[in-house]
Amino acid sequence: MSEAGMAMDEPARLEVDRLLDDRETRIIVCCGSGGVGKTTTAAALGLRAAERGRKAVVLTIDPARRLAQSMGIDSLDNTPRKVTGVGGNGNDGNDGDGGDGGDGGAPGELHAMMLDMKRTFDEIVEGHTDPERAEAILANPFYQSLSAGFAGTQEYMAMEKLGQLRARDDWDLIIVDTPPSRSALDFLDAPKRLGSFLDGKFIRVLMAPAKVGGRAGMKFLNVGMSLMTGTLSKLMGASLLKDVQTFVAAMDTMFGGFRTRADATFRLLQAPGTAFLVVAAPEPDALREAAYFVERLAAERMPLAGLVLNRVHGSDADQLSAERALAAAENLEEGGIVDQESGKAGLRDDDRSTPDTGLDLGADTAADADDDADVDADVDEITAGLLRLHAERMQVIAREQRTRDRFTSLHPEVAVAEVAALPGDVHDLAGLRAIGERLAAGVPAGA
Questions:
Q1: What is the DSSP letter of 292?
Q2: What is the mean pLDDT of residues 214-234?
Q3: What are phi and psi of 132, to 5 degrees?
Q4: What is the pTM of this model?
Q5: Binning pLDDT at 50, 70 and 90, where does residue 52 land?
Q6: Beta-sheet strands, E only, within 281-415
Q7: How many Cα atoms are found within 13 Å in the side-chain-facing hemisphere of 314?
Q8: Pairing relation of β-strands 109-114 and 81-82?
Q9: Beta bridge partners of 307
């Protein structure tokens, strides 16, 4: 299909306010590749939902901690904190769409929290073992390494925390900002991988000697596992291997729970009441990742609400094409619009032909004409520069449109909300409200 053909059909518009006002929607997951504005989108959705009457909590995994600054909170941690200054009165009057504002005027609330991966892991241990065993696990060097940065731990704990928030039922809307992973698929895959590891054959083999116990256990280890443990000792070191085995022995009663909870949260993401928003920028790599995620969500039977396309450029002067702007700039720079030299010369000739009044005006008139010529040249140069800037912007807009059209031609079923780029960074509630308004509008304004 040609690009001209792709541009003929506009994608369905994602109605963000309808999604936020739907009381059946309990979880919104913002996902996508890194650097596309997931955190800002999640925070803006949470703020808009609260000001339309929802009791919302935003769970973010944001190393830059911009969310806390935008919401006026000194710091975020593993405990939800209420955001002040949120005008939750059902419909805040800023959207101008005449919507019903959620539940007809009930005040909303906004809470925010930042995932503390290690603390969440600690809470699992403390909640599912007796105090003595929990203390031994928390002090174990292998556990400390695992809980602080083992591959997949962050994604697993994000899912774990989501399950905890949903089970508490303190909020009627949970908005999740997924981890900044190298691949958008990590959020879905990592919990299963970590759960499989913690409940897998490798762990069971390491746990076997402890289960047999005493000399019999050591005999089993020496005879049946000498080759494996010898290899592992070389790879991991004898001390680390011992830490792993101690950790496994202490965690014995918990391993099945990891996989069970991961599976339960995975089913929660598939259930009615959950909505995925794929967030992307109008760039080839980001939309390629978004397309991949859309296909994966469909394969996993997870409910996709639509695509949020952030930082889209627009112009209120789009009737002037890039080609015409460049042509006008070239004419100005080459003197093709006005013959300045002949015009100024004619002006000087006319000045010299004025009646003789007895005053010597010739020199002053010529100097004024030269000054006017310099001013006109400066104006032409500035105008040409502005025309070239406009041409560059129109080229950016056209490139973004072609990129979006390629995505929508592959996935015409995906509703799209285009969010116009802001002139600066979002650093307060007013900025988040502006993003929310643009999300609700769903189309880029001239900016």
A1: H
A2: 45
A3: -65, -45
A4: 0.76
A5: very high
A6: 304-312
A7: 17
A8: antiparallel
A9: 278, 416
